[in-house]
């Protein structure tokens, strides 16, 4: 590339990329939700979780004495504040990671494309494994009809991650070239 072409390229405005904007929105929404959830989980660390769960079920007019909900309540008794802190910390770090990556993509930082590709690609083998190996519980009542086929949700998440990785990898030079300074 000639010096003149390089100077023209540095001064170029980035071209519109609606798919990139959608990916940015997904990353920012997921990151924001995880950050908010992390704070909420952290605030629950020193609370009596079985009692809170019982109150919540009664508030939404469900029977906390049902077998399914009673088992969840029993499991909540085994949760310690340190477990909650670890979960909240992990959620916070991952939410921060997604938010920083989403902002990096929004500003078309060259490092952000590799961060997003790596983050999305990381989950693909796990999602494939879950799609192939996951056994749905038989005979158990489901809370809602949308959970009748959990593999559909996994397949959708897998497809979205594959599309994100493919799109960012295939378009990385076009979308992020104005930040490359040779």
Describe the structure.
This protein is mainly alpha-helical and 182 residues long. It folds into two domains: 18-105, no CATH class; 108-182, no CATH class. It is built from seven helices and no strands. The chain has helices spanning 3-11, 18-43, 49-59, 67-76, 81-106, 110-133, 150-176. α5 packs across α6 and α6 (110-133) runs antiparallel to α7. The termini are close together. Residues 1-8 have low confidence and may be disordered.
Any chance you could write out the topology, listing elements then pairs?
Layout: H1 3-11, H2 18-43, H3 49-59, H4 67-76, H5 81-106, H6 110-133, H7 150-176
Number of domains: 2
Distance between the termini: 10 Å
Low-confidence stretches: 1-8
Coarse structural class: mainly alpha
Written as H for each helix and E for each strand, in order along the chain, the element string is HHHHHHH
- Please outline the major beta sheet: none
The helicity comes to: over 70%
Mean pLDDT: 83
Write down the oligomeric state.
Answer: single chain
Number-wise, the strands total 0
Q: How many H/I helices?
A: 7
User: What is the general shape?
Assistant: elongated
What percentage of amino acids are in beta strands?
under 5%
Kindly provide the radius of gyration, computed on alpha-carbon positions and rounded to a whole number of angstroms: 22 Å
């Amino acid at each position: 590339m000639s010096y003149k072409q390089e100077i023209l390229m540095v001064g170029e405005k980035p071209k519109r990329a609606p798919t990139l904007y959608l990916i940015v929105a997904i990353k920012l929404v997921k990151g924001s939700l995880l950050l908010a959830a992390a704070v909420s989980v952290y605030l629950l660390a020193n609370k009596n979780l079985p009692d809170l769960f019982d109150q919540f079920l009664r508030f939404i007019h469900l029977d906390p004495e049902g077998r399914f909900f009673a088992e969840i309540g029993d499991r909540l008794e085994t949760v310690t504040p340190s477990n909650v802190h670890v979960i909240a910390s992990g959620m916070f770090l991952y939410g921060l990671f997604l938010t920083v990556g989403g902002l990096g993509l929004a500003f078309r930082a060259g490092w952000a494309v590799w961060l997003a590709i790596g983050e999305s690609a990381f989950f693909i083998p796990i999602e494939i494994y879950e799609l192939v190996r996951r056994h749905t519980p038989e005979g158990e009542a489901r809370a809602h009809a949308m959970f009748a086929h959990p593999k559909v949700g996994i397949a959708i998440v897998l497809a979205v991650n594959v599309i994100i990785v493919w799109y960012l990898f295939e378009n990385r030079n076009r979308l992020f070239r104005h930040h490359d300074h040779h």
